[in-house]
Amino acid sequence: MNDKQLPDIELLFELADLFKVFGDSTRLRIMVLISDSELSVSDIAEALKMEQSTISHQLRVLRQNKLVRVRRDGKQMYYALDDDHVKKIIEMGMDHILE
Amino acid sequence: MNDKQLPDIELLFELADLFKVFGDSTRLRIMVLISDSELSVSDIAEALKMEQSTISHQLRVLRQNKLVRVRRDGKQMYYALDDDHVKKIIEMGMDHILE
DNA sequence: TTAACATATGAACAGATATACATATGTTCA
DNA sequence: TGAACATATGTATATCTGTTCATATGTTAA
Predict the structure, then answer these.
(1) What is the pLDDT of residue B5?
(2) What is the mean pLDDT of residues B7-30?
(3) Which run of H or E residues covers position B56?
(4) CA nearest B21 in A: which residue?
């Protein structure tokens, strides 16, 4: 008997979409940047030397996938990683690369 | 003092490339398919109801990223997941999706 | 060697996506 | 209220990528 179930196709499509989010270096750099402490959009843009709108667009993708959480403080929006889950996924990937 | 080092940019580009590989549903389905037992190219093509050449192209991507290993047996090539690392990455992603 | 089969590869095309520019929305403070 | 600032969003575009068709490469068995 085989009681191991293959994930159904729908779920695998969702999973692919999730990994797509990790599959862009700008988004990865953002995630690593805010993994320890929250940062504002302009902080991130400055750190990565990229346009504010570019960062904002990518943060939206991260938000939509529940990978970050946001907090408003006055005019600024502070972003941080949503949970340690995300960190673990990144670490697993690193482990693979580093053999 | 902060002895936690940020991964350098080069490494993050590599990491993004790795996640890109996971970010396609066809490749994910292949990986899940061969996670328990090795299968030939035509087995996979049949299971996914896709062209042989499509599968072959994607298997090459998986090979290049050292995510699968191959074994020739006569005319057939048998593919299997390279290590449990890969399974773990997929499982972590699943966990995130399933909240 | 040749036919039949399994897999790999090259080229072309369609669809997806990251970025930049311009501008809108939202917030503070005078 | 209005000016200044921070962020979000719409649009356009250049680049990337997955799939297919056609064909090449490699293997077996006669």
Answers:
(1) 64
(2) 96
(3) helix B52-64
(4) A23
Enumerate domains of chain A plus CATH numbers: 9-98 (1.10.10.10)
Amino acid at A22: F
Q: Assess whether pLDDT exceeds 50 at residue B1.
A: no
Model confidence band, residue B2 (pLDDT cutoffs 50, 70, 90) = very low
pLDDT for B7 = 76
Classify A70 as helix, strand or coil: strand
| Rounded Cα gap, residues B21 and B93, in angstroms | 14
* Contacts with A1 from chain B: Cβ below 8 Å: none
Report d(CA B58, CA B20) in Å as an integer.
12
Answer yes or no: do A16 and B9 touch at CB < 8 A. no
Residue A5 has pLDDT above 90, yes or no: no
Amino acid, res. B16:
A
